[in-house]
Specification:
CATH superfamily: Nucleoside Triphosphate Pyrophosphohydrolase
Order of helices and strands: EEEEHEEEHHE
Radius of gyration: 14 Å
CATH architecture: Alpha-Beta Complex
Structural class: alpha/beta
Helix content: 10-25%
CATH class: Alpha Beta
CATH topology: Nucleoside Triphosphate Pyrophosphohydrolase
Number of domains: 1
Number of strands: 8
Number of helices: 3
Strand content: over 45%
Amino acid sequence: MKRIDVASALIYDDQGHLLVVNNIKGNSSYWSPPGGAVEQGETLEQAVIREVKEETGYDVAITGLSSIREVFFSEAGHHALIVSFFAKITGGEICIQDPDQDITEVRWVDLLTAKQLMPTLFEQLQIDMDDPHASSAFYAFEGTR
């Protein structure tokens, strides 16, 4: 299996809304926090900062570690290590600049809407509805898909 490293960011505004992006994959789409594959020679932090800028237009600073998750994608032959960070906006404005053209929409959503848009991922990220910053960083092996 080929190892793929992925970095994503959980970004909340002052009202507790989560920044999410709508991704295109084939003929379907799905919602997620901004993020993507780490490029060769890039650190995880550099990757997530770049991905957030490309997918949302925002500049961010990393404020902490949310999770490290691992998944085997048998059909694709990938072993993914997904590192999610907490981040805060330091500049920019919503503007999709994704060179891969995989992102169709960026929006701020309340946590109930986030849970409805991405129910499985919401649970996998262990987001606390009452206090999303309260959770401790964790590791999870999510099996084979």
